[in-house]
Amino acid sequence: PRTCRTSATSSMKCRSTVARVREGTKRSQTSCSNGPSLPLAVAVFVTRLPFAGVMLYHWDSINFALSLTRFDVRASHPHIPGYPVYVLLGRLVNYVVGDPQRALVLNSAVASSLAVAALYWLGRTMFDRTTGLIAAVLLACSPLFWFYGAIALPHSVDALMVIVAVWLLFRIRTGAGWLAIPAAVWLGVAG
User: Fold this and answer.
1) Count of alpha carbons within 13 Å of 174, Cβ hemisphere only?
2) For position 76, what pLDDT does the model report?
3) CA gyration radius, the chain
4) Greatest CA separation found in the chain?
5) Between helices 59-67 and 84-97, what is the axis angle to 10°?
6) Per-position b or e across 176-187, b if 16+ CB within 10 A of its CB
7) What was the pLDDT predicted at 30?
8) DSSP 132-158
9) Which residues share a beta bridge with 77?
């Protein structure tokens, strides 16, 4: 936790900022509206599909594709640390679509759309709706994030895991202690 030690005035400002953030968190929790998070997520998913990779982009993509049929870190299928959650998600989708390339790209597209929605909620929880919306739109339009949402690499899943972890930890910090166990599980799964 950040502490304010410089003067009484700055200490008062720090306390008022923390109180304002906590009040904003309470307000955002009472609203039932999803706001723009669902339309943003759908828009991100739809905009990734036309640019979806048709071949495995990188040797890591090849190793991830091979790991969907034979998981063996010793043979670099995939490379260390093994990405068990990413490979499991890939296997589940591959079971449905029957193509490792498409399965991993679909994972990336879905994870990128969920990451944008999660960033909206993080910004909304920490500050306000406008901040959440601006952050989500900037992430959605980022060329690098767009690229990773259309190829067979785990970076979009990583972004989603980090954003949700920060949201959980912020909520714990602002009084939602009951989220400690889910946060610990999430962080354990995220690796």
Assistant:
1) 24
2) 82
3) 19
4) 64
5) 70
6) eeebeeebeebe
7) 43
8) HHHHHHHHHH-HHHHHHTTSSSTHHHH
9) 72
Residues 164-185 have pLDDT tens digits of: 999 999 999 999 999 999 999 9
Residue 79 and residue 73: Cα distance in Å, rounded? Answer: 6
Residues 6+ apart with CB under 8 A from 35: 120, 124, 129, 132, 133
Residue type, 94: N
Name the residue among 110, 112, 106 with its Cα closest to residue 53: 106
Q: Give which of 61, 57, 33, 42 is closest to 140, Cα–Cα.
A: 42
pTM: 0.81
- The answer to whether 121 and 37 are in contact (CB under 8 A) is yes
